[in-house]
């Protein structure tokens, strides 16, 4: 089950906590996308964070592309219009705008949660 999160609150918490909440949000997003898409090849949130840390951010580019593809599958599975934003997410990562990627992914996850009746 996907947890619906308020995007504005998540952004504020990420800024106020100097990125600590952003790490939690990254891990949660990754796990939610993996669960909702049913992608068994996708790494867990914790492993994705660790790989991003160990590779000095390089894995983050792959993560952004992979999450875009998985979100497209998740939207299709849940009867929503599928948007393949994988290239957009990759470009945002390249320009250091990973927080914007998180916002878009969370917004799409919230739509799926609303469709499935989550509060």
Topology readout:
Layout (H helix, E strand, L loop, with lengths): L6 H10 L3 H18 L7 H10 L3 H20 L8 H9 L3 H18 L4
Helix pairs in contact: 1-2, 2-3, 2-4, 2-6, 3-4, 4-5, 4-6
Report the sheet-strand fraction. under 5%
Number of strands: 0
**Average predicted confidence as pLDDT:** 94
User: How would you sum up the major sheet?
Assistant: none
- Helix percent reads over 70%
Shape: globular
In the predicted model, the low-confidence regions spanning at least 5 consecutive residues are: none
Task: From the alpha carbons, calculate the radius of gyration and give it in angstroms.
Answer: 13 Å
Task: List the secondary-structure elements in sequence, H or E.
Answer: HHHHHH
Secondary structure tally, helices: 6
Structural class by SSE content: mainly alpha
What is the rounded distance between the termini?
Answer: 11 Å
- How many discrete structural domains? 1
């Amino acid at each position: 089950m996907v947890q619906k999160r308020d995007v504005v609150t998540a952004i504020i918490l990420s800024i106020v906590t100097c990125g600590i909440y952003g790490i939690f949000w990254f891990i949660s997003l990754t796990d939610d996308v993996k669960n909702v898409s049913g992608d068994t090849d996708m790494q867990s949130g914790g492993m994705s964070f660790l790989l991003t840390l160990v590779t000095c951010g390089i894995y983050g580019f792959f993560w952004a592309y992979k999450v875009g593809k998985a979100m497209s599958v998740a939207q299709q599975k849940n009867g929503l219009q599928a948007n393949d934003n994988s290239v957009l997410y990759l470009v945002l990562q390249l320009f250091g705008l990973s927080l914007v990627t998180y916002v878009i992914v969370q917004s799409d996850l919230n739509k799926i949660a609303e469709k499935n009746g989550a509060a």
